[in-house]
Write a structure and sequence with these properties.
34% of the residues are buried. The protein has five domains: 290 residues, Up-down Bundle (Rhopdopsin 7-helix transmembrane proteins); 66 residues, no CATH class; 118 residues, Beta-Lactamase (2-Layer Sandwich), CATH 3.30.450; 69 residues; 139 residues, Heat Shock Protein 90, CATH 3.30.565.10. It has a five-stranded antiparallel sheet with strand order 5-4-3-7-6. Strands 8-9-10-12-11 form a five-stranded mixed sheet, covered by helices on one side. It has a two-stranded antiparallel sheet with strand order 1-2. Helix content is 64%, strand content 11%. With 741 residues, the protein is of the alpha+beta class.
Amino acid sequence: MRAQATASRAASGLWAATALIGIAGAILTVLAWHDLKPSDAYPLLAYPPSAVVYATLGTLIVRRVGNRIGWILLGEGLAFSIQTLTSAYAVVGVITHPGALPSPKLVGALSEWIFVPILMGLPYMFLIFPTGKLPSERWRPVAGAAIAITGLALVGFIVTPRLVALPAPGGVSLTFSNPAAIRSLGHGLSTALVGNLQILSVWSVLFFAAALVALVVRYRSGGPELRQQIKWAAFAAAAVVAGQAVLVVTGAAAGSQSGMAIAVGLAIAVVALFGIPLAITIAILKHRLYDIDVIINRAVVYGLLAAAVTAIYLTVVAGIGTLVGYSGGPVLTIAAAVAIALVFQPLRHRAQRVANRLVYGERATPYQVLSEFADHIAGMLALDEVLERMVSILAAGTGATRVDVWIRVGSELRPAAAWPNGSAAPEAIPLVHDDELPALDSTTRAVAVRQGDELLGALALQKPRNEPLTMAEDKLLQDLASQAGLVLRNVRLTAELRGKIEELRASRRRLVDAQNAERRKIERNIHDGAQQQLVALAVKQRLAANLVRRDQEGAAHLLEELQTESTEALENLRDLAHGIYPPLLADGGLVEALGSQARKAAVAVSIEAEGVGRYDQEIEATAYFCCLEALQNVAKYAGASKGSITLIDGDGWLTFTVADDGAGFDLEETPMGSGLQGMEDRLDAVGGALEIRSELGAGTTVTGRIPVSTTSRSPEVTAKDRPDWDTPQWAPRDSNPEPAD
């Protein structure tokens, strides 16, 4: 923390020095204006504002993240200011006012010397952009060569005998011999020291090309955010490389003072002075490079406030005082203070909106989005309203074209809210794994909403294709998802409760319909079967009574028929009663009743029981009729050679399993028939659950679980507990079940 504070103070000091030196250079440039060639005057006057831009960007980066890019930008800005001051100083001291300034030629030579680190510092900055580090260890030789060439060139420019051309680099307004030159240097040593502008330009082209390759490498291996940040810097670097290459060729072919060379040199100067800082500024503001957009936002706010307060004060104190003939004094000062106090808060809000629009466009800041969402939660809005506000403010904070809120209900994600309003709701998405967010559309950025390790839902948004999601926007999405857990949990519970209510209503409707159907079926069976038989018996009894008096032999034969038909009527009634509530189930219990049915089954069925005793009639009837339904499906549809029934009582559950070795079926492709639906409804009515497992060629297993407690276990059930056949209590769920498919 102390080191960061020291770095911030140093950066601020360098910025102040850059500004002061730039102002001094601009003043000297104005003094020497008439002695400067047009091709030198305008670029020299552009150096001070460019230096301030470089230094401002560098200061912001250093104060925010301490990145080396910031220090390089600060150094470039300071060097531009010094170059402006020293070039103008030499022109004024040699041409405009000869002898008025001390050592003008030595100071002018310093202007060319400092051009060396300016020129070589820019490709090094691109080499480590934007992280402040080399792309990999393999780039160390390139960085070392750049530093070595810079050192050699700086020494060469200082000691090589040559003409100094000002304003630097290579100006035409003033030339003189290098005052620090060592005359005894040979031509070979001068060449090795890179002591002239042409050789330095060739090396700078090579290093700029290497830096451009490094940016391309970062672009190809980086994520979407990094690519957007690099794109503009790479464009500026490519422009410099192309311009310098053309300048070297043009200078060699037509001379450095040709019109083409001068035009290309001016274009390179524009890119170097303003294009490079503009590219970095775009990366900062549009793509949240170094996350210093908040600082810029505050700077704009404070600048606008300062300008407004100053304007108000001058209007009250100077303007009104001049009109009334009273200048200054405490009365007008107090009036100005009161006016500022009254309009300060409205001014601050308006300045904030202007700053947001300048920095973020039409969208709100991420911090305003989070604050607004927290206010809506605290305002106790209805759940639907909170979700609608959530998607709308998330869209406002990110510039998304679509925002969706998903909630987890059971084993799937369901859409809960969408922006823009009226958008078509997407289909529900099944969860592959309970606690993992499933893959959404490739153009959608989704963040899971969790409480602990539990997945509650997700927030998802889509951006325009030409505007990828920035780091700040992605951080906003994640922060909002972290706050949305409570809301989505409440929405999920509400949705699950509504779903349970609908399922309960549907189950009740099915049970009522099934009971009505069973009653009608029993009525038909009694009417068409037992009733007709009993009527026939009554008629034959009257005939037998008459025959006894007239024909004893015929009466005996008729009595035998009556006995046979009475037995058939009794069996018919027993079969009807068996469908209502089996006598064997009431007398012998679940295992004995199912064993009897297993012996009558169309395929061989084995039965195993573990810990199974007697239970309430409701539990025994549910398990019995579910197993019976499953056995009927095995006989009708499975094509099995054998089956099994397993009954287990343990851990507070009565579990039954009916399995077969039949053909099986595809659970996803085959809908649940009325028979299986009836089993599920029966189990659901007693708090149980049904599970079906089946695969083609691997048979089918139907498992049901019924909760049993101490009170639901009956130690003994006798024949007197058997339900009255005349008042049926348990109707079969589906005596003619539909197939599973």
